[in-house]
Amino acid sequence: MKDNNVILEVKDLHKSFGEQEVLKGISTEVNRGDVIAIIGPSGCGKSTFLRSLNLLETPTSGQILFEGTDLTDKSTDINVTRQKIGMVFQQFNLFANMTIKANIMLAPVKLGVMTKDEASKKADELLTRIGLLDKADAYPAQLSGGQKQRVAIIRSLAMNPDVILFDEPTSALDPEMVGEVLSVMKELAEAGMTMVVVTHEMGFAREVANRVMFINEGTIAEEGTPEEVFGAPKSERLQEFLSRVL
Ligand code: ADP
Ligand code: MG
């Protein structure tokens, strides 16, 4: 039997775009309850790696197992798996022509996971949790960037995912709105959600993550606890990266 604690298993993942090899053999595991911060220079393959985890990018070679199911196997229905993998993007990706509440209800209703009534109740619950119930009937354009991103996070929660992938969730925000989004993420982490977070917020990585992964030039160049990675970086490359971002 597979270890029940392992949610995602990545085996020798390679990804090329044309001639350019972006991921050069990544192997790792994500365990239930892990909060993994992925750090590294721009263009090193962080987004490509994250997007590969739910097959938004198709690996060139290697395997990704989600709860024991090989996502790279042609016979796997990726849409079923994606229901269990939430994703939050830098640019929120809310549907502009739908109300906030409709955005949250969309996936559970459309995929037949909940009735309209159930989804409506869930949406109210989630909006209450982030203090935005009064925005239920507003449209995304009427919200601040921080509010939109908090909605995007609870929208992913509406599907009761087993893991949520975040790709630089605060990078598009005005500085004064970063804190409110990070605090929602911190609450999620404290509630036990499994999270993989590409971030430039080193404070968050240090405080909230249990593992920090430094990706450089398409490989995991160094990995460890926040204490290890920030307190005692081994490689010169990581030391240099940290000296630039801290
Ligand atoms: P990061 O998120 O670490 O900044 P990315 O994973 O977005 O890096 O990109 C890694 C490299 O892959 C970059 O050189 C980028 O230009 C390239 N790349 C990413 N997506 C594509 C794509 N769809 N087509 C071609 N090249 C891509
Ligand atoms: Mg990126």
TrEMBL record:
Keyword vocabulary terms for this entry: Amino-acid transport, ATP-binding, Cell membrane, Membrane, Nucleotide-binding, Transport
Q: Mainly resides where?
A: membrane
Compartments it resides in: Cell membrane
Q: Which domain of life is it from?
A: Bacteria
SMART domains linked: AAA
Give residue ranges for domain ABC transporter. Answer: 8-242
In the bilayer, the protein is annotated as: Peripheral membrane protein
Protein family membership: Belongs to the ABC transporter superfamily.
Stated name of the protein: Glutamine ABC transporter ATP-binding protein
Species annotation: Agathobacter rectalis CAG:36
